[in-house]
Design brief:
By secondary structure, the chain is mostly helical. 58% of the residues lie in helices and 0% in strands.
């Protein structure tokens, strides 16, 4: 079974190189998501709205991000 992902010829590292690229992309998406959640909270957006945008429950997004600092160098009050 072929997917739309494997329509291109694999690079010199083959499938392992592609898997590494997927891992790196996933890490970048996680960093971007965290930054956007932090920005949303700093702008006063509530957890329910953030959760709805991410397609997860309020509890899930709160559990994942609530313990993180809202902004670099800013303590939580």
């Amino acid at each position: 079974m072929r997917t739309t992902f494997d329509q291109e010829q694999p690079g010199p590292d083959g499938v392992l190189g592609e898997l590494t690229a997927v891992r790196e992309a996933r890490q970048e998406v996680e960093r971007r998501e965290a930054a956007l959640v932090r920005r949303a909270r700093n702008e006063g957006i509530v957890w329910e709205q953030i959760a709805a945008s991410l397609g997860v429950s309020k509890q899930a997004v709160h559990r994942k991000y609530a313990g993180r600092r809202l902004a670099r160098g800013q303590s939580r009050s």
